[in-house]
Amino acid sequence: MKLIYSNIKKGEVKLLAQNLDDLWYLSTIIEPKDIVQGKTLRKIKIASDEEKSKEAIKKPVFIKLEVEKVEFSKYTNVLRVSGIIKEAPEEIPLGDHHTFNVDDNTIITVIKEQWLKYQLDKLKEACSETKSSLLICVHDREEAYFALFKKYGYEILAHIQGEVQKKREENIKKENFYLAIINKLKEYIDR
């Protein structure tokens, strides 16, 4: 995560979310009653004078909302921040509900009445975070999974199935599955 602007006395922090770990950090920092602002897409209904039917178009707008709910999903790669609109262009009614979809390369501003120490620590940790260097390998006699440890959980990198000798078969030469696992681990370490 990249810290663009910070004024803790005013309770204001402007951030650039760069990856899925950043979204997880934001989900732990943003709470109900916080103010979140940024650019977003909003459907705006346009009524022409001749026709009474209303057409809706998506328009990029700058909105400030009071947070009611924060949802993080590693499967959709999106952090959803829902709340009530406090400031918006005049064609958008105040008090309506809106949801920010925060994903990679999204800039948002988080405003809190008071930043708690653990929130500031999380923010500092998120801004100084480097790529994960913990590789997980889980295997048995016939298959192996390789995953990369992340803050939000893990990301599966590969799954290999080995041709190993069954216990009841005799004198059938199969590949060395454990050697294949070691080679795969070396490959990921070299990357």
Order of helices and strands: EEHEEEEEHEEEH
**Which ranges are low-confidence, i.e. pLDDT below 50, for 5 or more consecutive residues?**
none
Estimate the global geometry from the Cα principal axes.
elongated
Structural class: alpha+beta
Q: How would you describe the oligomerization state of the chains in this entry? A: single chain
Q: End-to-end distance, in Å?
A: 23 Å
The biggest beta sheet reads:
7 strands, antiparallel
Arrangement of strands in the largest sheet: 1-2-7-3-4-5-6
Rg? 24 Å
Strand content: over 45%
Could you describe the 3D structure shown?
The mean pLDDT is 84. Helices cover 19% and strands 47% of the residues. The strands form two sheets. The protein has a seven-stranded antiparallel beta sheet. The radius of gyration is 24 Å and the shape is elongated. With 191 residues, the chain is of the alpha+beta class. It has helices at residues 20-29, 117-128, 177-190, and strands at 2-7, 12-17, 35-47, 54-73, 78-87, 97-102, 106-111, 135-139, 143-150, 153-161. Helix 1 (20-29) packs antiparallel against helix 2.
Notable characteristics:
191 residues, alpha+beta, seven-stranded antiparallel sheet, three-stranded antiparallel sheet, 10 strands
